[in-house]
Amino acid sequence: MTAIDAGALPRFATLDPVTGEEIDTFPVDDERSVREKVDRARRASAAWDRLGHAGRRQLLLAWRRVMARRLPEIIALMERENGKVKADALIEMTAALTHLDWAARHSGKVLRRRRVPSGLLMANQYATVEYRPFGVIGVIGPWNYPVHTPLGSLAYALAAGNAVVFKPSEYTPAIGAWLADTFAEAVPGHDVLVLATGDGGTGAALCTACVDKIAFTGSARTGARVLAACAPSLTPVLLELGGKDALVVAADADVDAAVESALWGACSNAGQSCAGIERVYVAAPVYERFLGRCAERARELRAGTDFGPVTMPGQLDVIRRHIDDALARGGRAVVGGPESVRPPYVLGPVVLADVPEDSAAVREETFGPVLVVNRVADAEEGVERANASAYGLGGAVFARRGGLRLAERMRTGMVSVNDVLSFPAVPSLPFGGRGASGFGRIHGPDGLREFTVPKAVTRKLFDVPLTVSSYARGAKDMQRLQRLVTFINSR
Ligand code: NDP
């Protein structure tokens, strides 16, 4: 395939969500150029695999150092292209670098060949399992955590020995390009992180460009499209989708701490977090205290200082619709209301109370600084309501006693007890959900294995007196086998 001149492709602009100013322009990769990029990545993948875990570890740690050195630059870009406040950008980078470090240092230990017991019947076999890279992974990322989220796939896929073609969101291509540039600076000569820019069409092209696996992070609706696009070629898919995470407050909880966490979980990153807290179920004995304190603290938070604008203009309509629908169905606006939605901001947190469970603000992903606070009889009922969602990403429980038991009953992939959003920053924990929140895992040992094919190998060590899997066997062999099987399985 001939190389595509990127200059010949149409270009699109990335804009500052606050001022609307153009930041830069990028090519819209089409089917042909995406395929060419996948071919490029594939050519580079064999040498990357041959480096082994120790070799890749050195290079990935060098990438981490380059990113750490250029931290002020990426924080400024995240503020500009993504609208994040500095604190949110720094927190995102802290978690992202932690994951890169962990993946680089642990891939060998988790994925290397190891001997496993071969069992009595196969005692003459030396059995091993190892985790081999797929080859080329297509990573499709969202805009809300434009570094941390793609890096949850990129770092682990690269550490496992794959090459990657990375398609960032059309809202954050400059941040995606920064990731690719820093990689090229730290790891010259290994063309294993290839950037493809464009819109949804470019993402769709990547799904059918003969990659070995797609790691998709985004909405449930687009996730379903990705799954359908990958089905004809049986390309495996990892889906990290949206959420409608709930926080359950038990009657014995530290109410002030729960309020602080609820507001931070709802408003950090302007509420644009897949695992952000969107619903709170408070046990009746502490409900009024929680709501009063929550309202008091919410009134002190400000858009522009404590959290940034809503990055995607269309999302403001969704946020307003959810607030309107909640109020029309009998919910109460305790802080803010529809008037809080003033493009490009939601001016301050919107706290809604007593919102019917069938309203959009309870059922659908709001993706803004909006918190629904509902009363339940006790924490058990809170968990039941939390679980009555199509999504199942994360969640939180505040309780002085029995928190772990409540956490166990949450139908989600992750839960924080007496805190919120703590799990994404623990690198050895798997991240991912169930139900409409998707399947597969990033982060931790499971996240490394997600980008590999388990390979089972047996090596015959010696001949056994019992011949079974050969036509040289005799009737006596089979009689002996029967006696042996009966003996082993009767114990
Ligand atoms: P989208 O689903 O709109 O887009 C995600 C990515 O898919 C973008 O790069 C997008 O490109 C691309 N895309 C769009 N159409 C297609 C297609 N037909 N085939 C392939 N790719 C396509 O999500 P958002 O970017 O709006 O991100 C927000 C969503 O992501 C929320 O639902 C959030 O909860 C979820 N999310 C989940 C996380 C998790 O780990 N579970 C983490 C972070 C976010 P383009 O932008 O150019 O259209």
UniProtKB/TrEMBL annotation:
Record Pfam families: Aldedh
Enzyme active site: 240
CDD domains xrefs: ALDH_DDALDH
Any coiled-coil regions, as ranges: none
Keyword entries, A-Z: Oxidoreductase
Keyword Oxidoreductase belongs to the record: yes
InterPro entries: Ald_DH/histidinol_DH, Ald_DH_C, Ald_DH_CS_GLU, Ald_DH_N, Aldehyde_DH_dom
PANTHER family, sorted: ALDEHYDE DEHYDROGENASE-RELATED (PTHR11699)
Entry's family note: Belongs to the aldehyde dehydrogenase family.
Organism of this sequence: Streptomyces roseicoloratus
Entry keyword annotation includes Signal: no
Span of domain Aldehyde dehydrogenase: 11-457
This protein's name: Aldehyde dehydrogenase family protein
